[in-house]
Fold this sequence. Notes:
Blueprint: H1 65-112, H2 121-139, H3 141-144, H4 159-184, H5 192-198, H6 202-229, H7 234-248, H8 252-272, H9 275-297, H10 302-311, H11 313-322, H12 324-350, H13 369-374, H14 377-396, H15 410-419
Helix pairs in contact: 1-2, 1-14, 1-15, 2-6, 4-8, 4-9, 4-12, 6-7, 6-8, 6-9, 7-8, 8-9, 10-11
Pfam families: Rce1-like
GO molecular function: endopeptidase activity
Domain CAAX prenyl protease 2/Lysostaphin resistance protein A-like: 202-287
Amino acid sequence: MHHEAQMPQSQLPPQTHSQMPPQPADSADSAYTAYPVLPAYPAPPAYPPYFPQIFPPAQFAQMLPQQWQAWWQNKRRARAAKHDYSIVGWALTLIIGVWMVGSFLVMVGVSLSKNSESIPNGVLLLLSNLPLYAIAMPLSLLVLRNVPRLATKRFDMSPGTFIKLFVATVPIMYIGAILGNLVAAPFSAEDTLDSALMNTDYVSLFLLTCVCAPIFEEWIFRKEIIDRTRKYGEKTAIIVSALCFGLFHGNVRQFFYAFGLGLILGYMYVRTSKLWYSMLMHALVNLNGGVISIWVTSQIDDKALSRAMEQSADATMREVQRQLGGVIIVGVYAVIMLALFIAGIVILVRNRKRFVFFDAPEQLEQGTGVKTALGNAGMIVFLVIGILMTISALVMSQIPADGPGDVGGAGSATMLLQMLGVLLG
């Protein structure tokens, strides 16, 4: 009888009674049932058992094609935004450079003039700003033209909205001025800008603050800059233009309120795309802060009032009666400004959620706009120069304009040097 060769027990697979059905006694498979049931093979130890720590399996993030496309678009937009904002920074740097060189030449010409002491402050202010408005700002278009504009629709603004925004600028301006004075107080001996404006005729003040400054500054900081950068985000364009606007004044006393005013003016322009709204707002703000307020404060002799208050109550009353007309004018103006200040706070608080912004065609990732706009060569150079201008203004404010020992036009030249870095807001 032929018998099949039997496999060694070590090579037989594990079997259980439940797995092997009963076989007939005379079948060929009956020999397998004669062996005892073997236990199941033990599971191999988890890899690696000889390391004290367990290494988790590598996890690779799986990105869908749409996610890859969005990631690539964000990278491309960030590179384009850095390029365009860098050009804006170089354009602003060019403006500062040309302005400083032109103002220096004016200063030299004034110093060499035999009649420099007789030149009015208003003429000096006009001369010091002439290179800025007539040469530097127009030249910046040679650089800015490399960044294309974003075509937008134009919208009207109701008179009520315009008035509300004007009232809202009052607390922004006063709070900003207070912050600027607090920062400058430990370093500055006097406010050279205020002293220069107080001694300037009102015609020159009006031309500078209510005509030249609104037209040229709004043209550059709102029209030219925002039109070329708003495609990367409205908020980013407004914030960056306001920051540049504040630094461009080159004066720490003006930086904070110029920045706050720049936010309002930028929002007005973005929502309307009409430059004359922001120009008119800028002119009204400057009319109040640069002309009316100076005229009001000139109606009283504050030094005489201070001396009288230090003496006695009777002396104070006599001085007040002597300056009664001026005191009434100052009091009425103060009450009006206080009312506008409170009304402006109420308007800002109640309408804080009504400031709307829309996504731009090349909208940057949320939270990366300002970082992208400022993190490039052109903007970094401009920021450094703007900060240096602000510091130099603090240093120059400690130099007396007309002290003993001035020869010829040195006093006027020093005052003109103090005006460098001061762009009338």
